[in-house]
DNA sequence: ATTAATAGTTACTTCCATGTGACTAAGTGA
DNA sequence: TCACTTAGTCACATGGAAGTAACTATTAAT
């Protein structure tokens, strides 16, 4: 089910991108990739999704503990927006003190799988990125000095 | 080469995440997924990468035209950071007026392939997200009214 | 002498995502 | 009566990413 582009037989990423950006295929500004990245590009959403990725329902405070550094407010904000988009389910139990549990929806889990594949790239190229960065900074420093 | 987790035979995403987050496997805070998303999560990087994904070298002003809404400054900033991380190459021609061309590096192209797969998810679930969002807002509106 | 072209840089401003700390409801147990 | 618990909300403060507009070098063409 990897049929992003089925308008033509596009086999290389170049062909795919070219086909994709063709105004005949989509309205201008249509960019699902950007949509996803915007959705998970904030500070906490991805971490919430990852922590719910264990497959167990987690209570609010469990998440707060597991997601290091997150504030109460930001956890609420993050979970609300994930819930709104249908990526997590929220279960409220009528108890005192309150109990609220969160879990990934199937849609959220599918996203996690996709996002997870990015990790392959990150791991494979992490060293190379750091190298490139160091080399670049070294050059920049030289220029500034002279 | 999809061997993110080879410590165990982890077949479900739950197992993968569990294995991944095990402090025995990685130092705390190690999260390559977050790294990538941070890298492309800014406003323009992804759009620059996508536009360079055609496989053709593009001049500064070509990019500026193609990336709708980007300012001169932000294009420079974006390209510089991509160059620094080794995702794009920059070719300067000693001409007047200046000519500078940009292209994806192989590493950048590999990233594009991965990121592209997110589009599959986005396209598949776009309608469902919008539905979920509308339903959520409708409920929220009711609560406010009462 | 002036304009035009390209690929920037620089100084300044603005705004929104995020952070902080106090506050709340509702019941339980001491 | 008071403290304690959980899962929040609310008002306000802040930093940094992004935006804006003016300025630059260099040469060719008019």
TrEMBL record, chains A, B:
The lineage of its organism: Bacteria, Pseudomonadati, Bacteroidota, Bacteroidia, Marinilabiliales. Gene3D superfamilies: Winged helix-like DNA-binding domain superfamily/Winged helix DNA-binding domain. GO terms for molecular function: DNA binding. This is Transcriptional regulator, HxlR family. The keyword Cell division does not apply. Keywords: DNA-binding, Transcription, Transcription regulation. It comes from the Bacteria. Residues 31-130 form the HTH hxlR-type domain. It holds the Pfam family HxlR.
